[in-house]
Amino acid sequence: MLRSSSLVGVALFVAALLAPVSAAQSNSVPGMDVSLSNLGAVKNWGRIGAFPNGTSAMSMSTTACNVGTVNVGWNAPMNTNHPVISFLVCREENGRFEQISDRSYVKHGFYATNQGGCASCSNPSGNPNTLFVGCSDTYGTDNNADRYYLGAASEIDPWLGNWTAKCSLFDKGEPAVAPPFDCDGVRSLNTTMVNAMDVLEHRINLTDADLDHPAATFYYQGFYTVRGEPEANRGNNAAIREMNVSWSGTKWNLTAAGAQFSGSILDRWSGATIGSNTNGVDDGRLFVGVKVTGPFAGLWHYEYAVYNRDNARAVGAFHLPVAVGATVSNVTFRDIDTNTGNDWQVTQLANELVFTTALNPIEWGTLYNFSFDSSAGPVAGSADLNPFHPGTGAGVVPVGTVVPLDVCAQPTVYCTAKVNSLGCTPSISLSTFPSASQGSGCTLSATNVIGNKNGLFFHGSVSAAAAPFHGGYLCVASPLIRHTVQNSGGTPGQCDGVLSEDFNAYIAGVFDPLLGPGVQVWLQGWSRDPGDPFTDSLTDAVTATICP
């Protein structure tokens, strides 16, 4: 769920001892390459619960092609040499891209039909325990929803493509049979057990609350995990399509729409920047997507999505560098369950924002969201992801992304100017962001000032204000520091006067030792106005953060 998080201490994340342990891809088979060539129709299997509090079950059709140069094992379980298919449904709305399906069970492949439709099938209708080079195999929506072949995703090592049949769900049955038959390597899950399941169990689950978004765009994805397939060949294992969603009054109408795409489902996030990386040759690929909007009232909004495609060790911490002195607020986190007790925690350190979990890692085939506002603007950088489960490989996976490191965001004008006795409204501006090192090049100006009158600028580094003063507003909080008095020039009795100074030169002159990199400053202009009851005039105000 989408929930706000307070900035609390970093949680110590722990390892789950029974998780699959990844290793260097020692089982890599050169030439092995399976693609999801056709992501087909979707099907709603029914629902439990009354609208708007119900949940529906869904499945999708998939066709695999062997586009490699070697044959691929396609044996039925309890033989372990076969692919599995994982499923994902996401929603894009209001700049966010979120997973709305649960961590659904995965389909265990069996009985390759070895049809055409890919290339020249090398062995049409050949041995069904093998998908031959150039041949295809299709599972319809019924087949991909058959719980007899749907097992827990947690049993799969997505990096190596390995599955252990002994003590698996298929071995134990549901409900589990008595020992020792629950862990003897012989299938116990039978059709009687499967037929006793309700319509939702082990299928893709979608809640009314997540589907009832008429303005949203929905996407669904299938992904083939193939034992021994090199990581470099996995870019075509996924296929993504848009899905139309509408409520009929009794059920959700779900239909496939538009073209099919390969890659990552995050690639469908409009306007986002997507980066990815593996843990070297020791574990699978992680994706980080980000969309930045703003600034609004001096703040940028950052939306991140972290997607684990096939990383067995999962993700237990997410580190984002943040500019020193930058503010961070409105922090939110979203996972794929409703348990607030396993929400990730977040803390802001001097130079980074750190999200961590002790209980709820980003397992393979899932996508979590993180968002916040910051006074620092976006620049290209890198986020660090830490593995959750034990295993070989580095303790940090860096992923290129966009991060809040630019304190050089464009200045923002705020507050209300005082109309002068000639009916003109004085206006303040900064020509660009100020710099602590440039020494010049940032012009602070006030226009529409009465001509040939004395005036000055003043600033503070505490906060903005809107305090009534002399018939206008004092827009800068105390303590205030006044700049040098100057003459506005122009024509007496006209509003053609201008106050101007180089604010970078002011900073370089060390008139205020507090003005340094990362410091936010608020500025306002004052000038004489003999026709005003208080004999003065005030501009609106401008704020900016000083760049290095």
Low-pLDDT runs of 5+ residues are 1-22
Helix count equals: 4
Largest sheet: 7 strands, antiparallel
Oligomer, anyone? single chain
Molecular structure report:
By secondary structure, the chain is mainly beta. Strands 5, 6, 7, 10, 14, 15 and 16 form a 7-stranded antiparallel sheet that branches. It has a 6-stranded antiparallel sheet with strand order 1-21-24-19-18-17, with no helix packed on it. Strands 27, 30, 33, 34, 36 and 37 form a 6-stranded antiparallel sheet that branches. A hairpin with a 3-residue loop joins β22 and β23. It is elongated, with a radius of gyration of 30 Å. Mean pLDDT is 94; it is low at 1-22.
Keywords:
single chain, 548 residues, mainly beta, 7-stranded antiparallel beta sheet, 4 helices, 3% helix, disordered N terminus
